[in-house]
Model the fold of this input.
Amino acid sequence: MPYEAWKDNEYIEQLLAELRANGTNVIVGSFDKLINWGRSNSIWPLTFATSCCGIEFVSLGAARYDMARFGWEVARASPRQADFMMVAGTIVHRMAPVMRRLYDQLAEPKYVIACGGCAISGGPFRKSYHVVKGIDEIVPVDVYCPGCPPRPEAMIYSIMQLSRKMKVERFFGGVNRQEKIKDFLANHPEESLGY
Amino acid sequence: MYDLSVITKWIHELLMSFMPGWLATTIECVAIGVALLLVYALLALFYIYFERKVCAAFQCRLGPNRVGPMGLLQSFADMFKMLIKELITLKNIDKFLFALAPYLVIIASMLSFAVLPWGKGLQIIDFNIGIFFLIAVSSIGVLGILLAGWSSNNKFTLIGALRSGAQMVSYELSIGLSVLTMVAFAGTMSVTGIVEAQENLWFIFSGHVPAIIAFVIYLIAGTAETNRGPFDLPEAESELTAGYHTEYSGMHFGFFYLAEYLNLFIVSGVATLLFFGGWMPLHIPGWEGFNQVMDYIPSIVWFVGKAIAISFIIIWFKWSFPRLRIDQLLALEWKYLLPINLFNLVLMVLVIVYGLHF
Amino acid sequence: MANIQEKIAKLFPEATFEDGEILLVNIPDAKWHQLAKCLKEDAELHFDHLVTIVGMDWTDKLGCVYYLNSTKHNTSLSVKVTTDDREKPMIHSVHDVWKIATTFEREVYDFFGIIFINNPDMRRLFLSIDWKGYPLRKDYDMNPEVNPVSLENERQEDTTVSYVEKEDGTIEKKVVEIFAPEDFVVNIGPQHPATHGVLRFRTAVDGETIKKIDFYSGYIHRGIEKICEGLTYPQTLHFMDRMDYFSGQQYHHGLCLAIEKALGIEVSRRAHVIRVMMDELSRIASHCLFLGTFCMDLGATTMLFYTLRVREQILDIMEKTCGARMTFNYGCIGGVMQDLHPDFVKDVKELLAVLPKNIKEYNELFIGNVIAKGRLEKVGVLSREDAISYGVTGPSGRASGWACDVRKTHPYSIYGELDFEEVVYTEGDSMARTKLRIAEIEQSAKILEQLIDNIPEGEYCVKVPKIVKLPAGHYFQLVEGCRGAFGVYIESDGGTSPLRLKLAPPCLPLANVVDHLTQGSKIADLITIGGSLDYIVPDIDR
Done:
């Protein structure tokens, strides 16, 4: 797909501009390129679904939408082996510590996609006494994928955006994303998680 | 048929001509090691791609097709990613054994590579108890799995490891007996000897009934040995999340992942060796022209091609069959396969004694 | 109904009666347990199926409404038990009469704080152990600071409490052990590939054998019932799609029927036919997905792709008419939202043409497979008595020989005039549950075949007042979802939003029965049994 077709995400363009402004060493830069090529083409999801969006995620794996084309079909049940977490469905108070724990168990570099209205803001259940109003209160979110539930096409698009985001990061030195995660984690401490 | 040992001999003599013997041997060992590692990695990556494509075909899907032409680079991308993934250090585990386990699994499959007959004259070591060595080293793998499960300090991995232990110990018997059946038929334990014995006709044809029974049993037990469906209980995803390697991340998990596919290759390779003539081309007695045409295909292509064809069958039933339960798994081995196998051994002996084979 | 009333009045002079579609008996708490025993055991009454317990807060008093069905006489009855004490409300438990009551009572305790005397397990069901307040009470403090989002791991206890009545009438609090200290407890869930969502089983195992399972739900409890109390009736409808997301059409149907019954609206024939066709289409889609995910749990991944093929075809039909793939929000008060798409008839006929071929393929690939037979047959056998006592309805109940299809027992909409069979198997094992669903796909196809050429002309939605106000009173409606009987209870005070909207999902009893079915079987059987029961977790938790 030509790059021009993608020029619709200001956030990534901004990241890219930041990267270009800093300049980089040739060897490190080409290593980065290779690694980022690998990382952005091999995004393994964690099997994690709480409600309706999870079923659309199943459809995404099925023959019509076939996420295997992009190499995303290796869904790992163990968070240690997955690259990103598609939070598909509502997160409620009781689930919040569990989800945070799953996030902490993911191996770096790790990403989160908030999939569906509930994960983004609480969606139709925002008024409830037991629903988290957006998972970005708990974990840093990389891509938001709206919908109730999002269509599989929308999910494909959101994972492709994640893939692009990986491409403009730097693995060696100035990893602009991981610093943000550190900030986030400092603001949302995990000291009370019992492990 | 071109004898590849000519090349290896030439390299050896070339090295010997200008350096002392010990140095030449060392250099050869290192070169072989590097070549082995390379083949090992490439083969695993190919197998990962192969399985993903094959299962996609069974499931009316396309499979990887975006990364590189026809998705050929997909598993390379996976490997690069895996290499840079974080190795999570866990609290309250046996750190040494935890780190050792994936290497044990990898070493076991690597040692098995040493005796596989890749082509005519292309074999790392060829000694008179090759098959025996193969069976011995391939069973080291279970140790790695047991250690992985035990040292992770996790209940799922422990259950996975115990299942794996029970499974391996049981199915090792079937493998051993079916191999023994074929060794009895060949009359030698040497890998080259077995291959040479199949020059005119592959054992699966010449040994007819007992050989076919042995092949079916070997295929079932071999699948069980590699922890693949329908015998993937140690890593039954829907039951034990990821089984014995639940707690492994990054390249450590990568080793388990690669070893799974390499074991698949080894099992298929041994099946090729025992039943389908190793690197021997397909010869039909009496059809001289046909046999000569077959001889033109290089021996290494024959071996790898046959192994992949058998892997295809194993992949086929992984994606079609549901998983067995642990008690059914053990019942299958102890109540059915083992008695059949013992009977088959007797049958094979009768066939040999009375010369009932072709 | 009159003789039931006479009979109860004779035995229990304290009881008072309210007439309605379903007879309501008011009984003081002291006599309730006795009445319950009598209702269940008396051969003439024989109310052996407890449909649901509706907890209620009437501000001046708290209480429960019990909905009962008789499987023998096909009669229904409701019983109301109240208490004035708001500080420490107590009602006698009926867990020894109907087994499902244990869990239903826990739910009422969780939402209203009503303690059930003698119930062996008085823990919260959905909310965490340290939750403050009882959310469905009218005076519950909704301030998020009272119960903030916590990242702390939930407190875990291996014991539960029980309030036991002694012989002299005093109540004693007792601590009951769930797991012994020496038990090897494996935690399965909430994030686990085989729990079909975020259900959690704490499983005590002895090697590979399961000793006991304690199920925890509430990991997707979204408080739909409470939110609905603040919404108008048309607004409440869209939540029906988000509980059991495969039975969205049926649940919509149920709530619409209840509201229409209250308003006295007669829906046009065309709307009836459209609703029934949509119900049956989603039933086929749901059973297809069941078959796929179930086989995937057992390790036969390829089946999933073959079954999803049919499901995608149905979703296409739905999408054309309803405009969405999953949360359709298609049924509305008075009919349906939009008229059928012009392609509808053609598409459904295409679907009906490919179904038999697909079913044959499923049977060949999976049901006939020797490994599948070994895994499913004689695994998780549920007897008919237990199915009724545990309230296991739907395909799982019918596989145990209990003819519990609401479409046949209490026909609604136009199901009474349709020609279809209620498939009932008697084996009660996982294989029967699986095969029954395939047979139900065939029956649904049969219904569709009858209707597809006979869609009458007419309006798809009748005129409904702009502001929907239900007359004061209570209304109950049962419909057949994809997984069992779905009950809607509405209590109205005459306003625009319900005083209480209770949704009685079929999946809670299904998840509850897992412990009973798995005892003594292997860990792998837990996956088989859980999969074959086919519960949907958001439906349990609401």
The mean pLDDT of chain A is 78. Chain A has one domain: 8-187. Chain A touches chain C through 46 residues (CB under 8 Å).
